[in-house]
Amino acid sequence: MNLDGSAQDPEKREYSSVCVGREDDIKKSERMTAVVHDREVVIFYHKGEYHAMDIRCYHSGGPLHLGDIEDFDGRPCIVCPWHKYKITLATGEGLYQSINPKDPSAKPKWCSKGIKQR
């Protein structure tokens, strides 16, 4: 709630910084879970970069912190262990492999589903 009593849009709420752990520990383990502003998140350290997202997959609630990180078309992704959904670490985009059925020589390519993991 805002000071005037009106409801606040959770997407537009401003948050303060939160310490989730020691940098050395995160780098060593390459992933960790934390609760940040009442949200369960997973923090990944992959190839020198940090990434964070909701701990549960947008599709069916699979535990992303237990998934493997794999590259798809040069994009590192977390693969949900339940249904193998691929989510890019950098943007949270869900990816799928597409092919043009009218072109017999077409090669499959990775495309965005238009859905993002928070």
Automatic annotation (TrEMBL):
Residues 98-118 are annotated as: Disordered. GO terms for molecular function: 2 iron, 2 sulfur cluster binding; metal ion binding. The keyword Transcription does not apply. This is Rieske domain-containing protein. PROSITE patterns: RIESKE. Its cofactor is [2Fe-2S] cluster. The keyword Iron applies. InterPro entries: Rieske_2Fe-2S (IPR017941), Rieske_2Fe-2S_sf (IPR036922), Sol_Rieske_ferrdox_dom (IPR054716). Residues 17-83 form the Rieske domain. Transmembrane segments: none annotated. SUPFAM superfamilies: ISP domain. PANTHER family: FERREDOXIN-RELATED, RIESKE DOMAIN-CONTAINING PROTEIN. Coiled coil: none annotated. Keywords: 2Fe-2S, Acetylation, Iron, Iron-sulfur, Metal-binding, Phosphoprotein, Repeat. Pfam families: Rieske_4.
